[in-house]
Design a protein that fits this description.
There is one protein chain. It is built from 4 helices and 3 strands. By secondary structure, the protein is mainly α. It is globular, with a radius of gyration of 15 Å. A 3-stranded antiparallel beta sheet has the order 1-3-2. The protein has one domain: Winged helix-like DNA-binding domain superfamily/Winged helix DNA-binding domain (Arc Repressor Mutant, subunit A), CATH 1.10.10. The two termini are about 20 Å apart. The model has no long low-confidence stretch (mean pLDDT about 90).
Amino acid sequence: MDAQLKKGVLELCLLQRLSGQPQYGYDVIQTMRKHFPEVTESTFYAVLRRLDKEGAATTFRGEASNGPARKYYQLTKAGRERLEQMRADWVQLQGIMAELGIVK
């Protein structure tokens, strides 16, 4: 898959994954790797860090449980708005692709 296309799809999928309750970073990545096995953990973490830096997500440390405190991610209001915009863009793109006969 083209790197630029994959970058946008990964961001959309990560935003969706974070749209519920706060998620432990490692758990998010393990779920995503089931769907994108060719993507490295460092790539997922890079997207998560960028989402945090851009204000679409926020992080916090959970309580330690027999080890170091875990880093959790959750969407911010800006992140939810970004997710909704990306969903709308995705639906529009699907319509264009269907009209062109690329997908049915």
